[in-house]
Amino acid sequence: MVRLSVAQLLPALNGGGVERGTLEVARELVRRGHRSMVISADGRLAPELLRDGSEHLAWPLGVKSPLTLRWVWPLRRWLTEQRIHILHARSRLPAWIGWLAWRGMNPVTRPRFITTVHGLYSISRYSAIMTRSERVIAVSETVREYLQRHYPELPTTRIQVIQRGVDPAAFPYNYRPSAEWLANWHQRYPQLRDAPVLTLPGRLSRLKGHEDFINLIARLRMHGSSVRGLIVGGVEPHRQRYADQLRRMVQAKGLNEVILFTGHRSDMREIYAVSALVLSLSAQPESFGRTVLEALSLGTPVIGYDHGGVGEVLARIYPAGLAPFNDPDALTARVIALLTAAPPVPSEPIFPLQRMLDETLALYESLHQAPRNLA
């Protein structure tokens, strides 16, 4: 086996699907005896990355400023000195820096260049950088269709679908939190005791459907339901105004004791497990829907809008949770139906993490050995 040196590029190491996927691949590389490096700004996940045996180069490649271009030359020099085999960019601005550095290297000895399209980005020359690599990983069939529709010049042979996965050992079916966790949880949120809890996970962003969620809880209460709503997600500094707006909306509807904001939490497994339903109400189609998969892995029913990657996952695993987009009455009826009698979530893992890791590392190895285009 050839020992590969793999460098992954992303903006930062805070919480999120891109970051979590980066750490999972990094951990698997180390486990199999490869050298794993991540280049990004710092973040709350950096200690975990280092603890798992990877190296971290703390370069802020995701700062949207012309000054970020200054990292092109140091990156090119570093890639040469470190003899990197695979350069894997997971976000647009780091991909630009990576591509500019890679393009100026000797085609015979430079790394093989891979991008992963994690989102349904706006169609632009800026976003098109994600199609400039030697292989493009699409995280779902939804992303593959998006690439083929909007970037027809991208050969289909360069696209590989590697769907995201969840470790069933980390999110075990029918998991129940410990008595200690439950005691602390109910002490912190006594309003949630003995009430069906509807949870909306995700950062506080206008695209994540928080207004729809608040309106849904209000409608359910008008129908006589005793549900409580839980909004779980951190507030980024530039989105503080939006977070304040959501809190005012909750207050205006008289739901201060009904809808609770937890901020960022690292115990999502436990929160999913104590939820009656998990919601995914993004206004724009998601590329995959990792939170949906995590909750379903535990056996917790999920209701989500029938579009994008969330619709794709639910159609495969839990079609009872599909709700039409932008139809509040249908959404309310679907929630009431599942709160009354939810079909069980299948226990068989449909998107296991290990398959995603195996396919990613197989791509690294096959591309490393593939003939180079020296034109």
Please describe what this structure looks like.
- This protein has 375 residues and is α/β, with parallel strands linked by helices.
- The protein has two domains: 5-165 and 353-369, 3-Layer(aba) Sandwich (Rossmann fold), CATH 3.40.50.2000; 179-341, Rossmann fold.
- It is built from 13 helices and 13 strands.
- The protein has a seven-stranded parallel beta sheet, with helices on both faces. Strands 10-9-8-11-12-13 form a six-stranded parallel beta sheet, sandwiched between helices.
- Strand 8 (197-201), helix 7 (210-222) and strand 9 form a beta-alpha-beta unit.
- Helix 3 (72-82) packs across helix 4 (92-103), helix 7 (210-222) crosses helix 12 and helix 10 packs parallel to helix 11 (308-317).
- The longest helix has 17 residues, at 353-369.
- It is elongated, with a radius of gyration of 22 Å.
- The model has no long low-confidence stretch (mean pLDDT 94).
What labels describe this entry?
single chain; 375 residues; alpha/beta; Rossmann fold; six-stranded parallel sheet; 13 helices; 39% helix
Which helices and strands, and how do they pair?
Layout: E1 5-9, H1 17-31, E2 35-40, H2 46-51, E3 55-58, H3 72-82, E4 86-89, H4 92-103, E5 112-117, E6 135-138, H5 141-150, E7 159-161, H6 179-188, E8 197-201, H7 210-222, E9 228-232, H8 240-252, E10 259-263, H9 268-273, E11 277-280, H10 290-298, E12 302-305, H11 308-317, E13 322-323, H12 328-341, H13 353-369
Helix pairs in contact: 3-4, 7-12, 10-11
